[in-house]
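Ticket #471: bound-state structure for pyridoxal-5'-phosphate.
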Amino acid sequence: MTYISTRGGGEPLSYSETLIEGLARDGGLAVPAVMPTVDAATLEGWRGLRYPELATEVLGLFATDIPRDDLARMTADAYAAFPEEVVPLRSIGDGITLVGLSEGPTLAFKDMAMQFLGQVLEYQLERIDSVLNVLGATSGDTGSAAEHALRGKDRVAVFMLSPQGRMSAFQRAQMFSLDDANVHNIAVDGVFDDCQTLVKQLAGDVAFKQDHRLGAVNSINLARITAQVVYYFWAWLRATDESGPAELSVTVPSGNFGNILSGFYAKQMGLPLRRLVLATNENNVLDEFFRTGVYRPRGAAETVATSSPSMDISRASNLERFIFELFGRDASRVVAAWRELDEQGFFDIGDDLPRLRDEFGFESGTSTHADRLATIRSVHEQTGELVDPHTADGITVARRVREEGVPMLVLETAKPQKFAETIREALGIELEYAPDVRAMLDAPQHVTELPNDADALRAFIAEQALSPRAE
Ligand SMILES: *Cc1c(COP(=O)(O)O)cnc(C)c1O
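RESOLUTION: The complex was predicted; output attached.
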């Protein structure tokens, strides 16, 4: 299996090569040259597998340049820190089942892919005898998932920028309590956008980037997308039996279109998913796109801070991979759409609009702060269960579009403990933290404060970065 660019340029890459390259050389995103498929008999044969074994099967279709035994070892190690079941399913009534993706170390679904990425990155760096200094900006979940996945690795260091004083106490503790030598928390005197601008400045400085082996593990990373495909297969196999309803729908709380893209890939591969329901919060560029066919990213000023903050996006970086399939894998149409967007601030898929639902099964909806609170309350009243605000956005939209007789899965993307203020607002209760979480919140914190200045950041990285041994 090789990987080509959504913009049609550059040489095809292997799976391992895409890990470190990030963007394709022409600025596009890496996609499988041919989408792998899974037939019904193979799918049935996977029923008895444990999660890491299923992950080896599914990822083996993508990572064809990694020997099977090595892949099996990596999936076992990636999910060792999870409970035995890794991804538990639980019904909350009304034909809705939650798919628990937040059982990992940072209590959000990003651990599912990041833990695997940590394994495969170290493995590949070993193979090519190199090192990588991961530079990123975070406003919460991504940074902590990356740090927990990469901590203690020999060939990777993490430099994670966050806006000083603007993360929740929980998010700060999750990152800053780590004391591994290869994890560098940097609190920038600025807002999240300033952090992102600094990352772009350094990543755009080709000489600096090469000298210091800088890389990224952001949401366009192909290993993350493929690792997320696994749990769609898992959830389908758990929610059906040999005789049961073969088709079911999935609702995905969405931001950058990473998670639901993986569901789309699973469907393309042959998994019987009926609807892929995209749920947004008030930052609903994607709901707008799936309803109207017009994609109009927003500026920072039009992007609002909500109580489901991990979905507060202004543009959806992975949408390009879907557009590529929508346009029949015609890269020139992708390039034309992006040119249109540059010129007029939006593009319009026009006649292709009905295909989003009829051919690809997409549906979408928006959930607001009031919806979130009402859903957290009603789920709690009906089942005694607590759900986090992002999952509540998913449940809100799922309830609206659910079809009689078609089971609906909703992906649980975070644990409520991460968002205690919203739970308090909805239910008037204080959450109890488990002892290990309490210990994390009380642990000493490790963070370097830097001004919002690219040269200060350059100097810090130059001093702390890992460098290749034999040079
Ligand atoms: C990142 C995140 C999302 C959005 O996922 P995308 O892949 O960006 O669509 C939703 N919920 C939570 C809790 C997240 O951390």
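RESOLUTION NOTES: The first strand starts at residue 3 and ends at 5.
TICKET STATUS: resolved
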